[in-house]
Amino acid sequence: MRRDPLFDALNAEIVACVRCPRLVAHRAAVAASPPPRFREQTYAARPLTGFGDPRARLLVLGLAPAAHGGNRTGRIFTGDRSGDWLFRALYRAGFANQPISRDPADGLRLTDAYITAAVRCAPPANKPTPAEFASCEGYLLQELRLLARVRVVVALGRIAWHAYLRARRRRGQTLPPRAPAFAHAATVELGDATLLIGSYHPSQQNTFTGRLTRPMLQRVFTLARRAVDDLGRGA
Question: What global pTM score does this model have?
Answer without folding.
Answer: 0.95
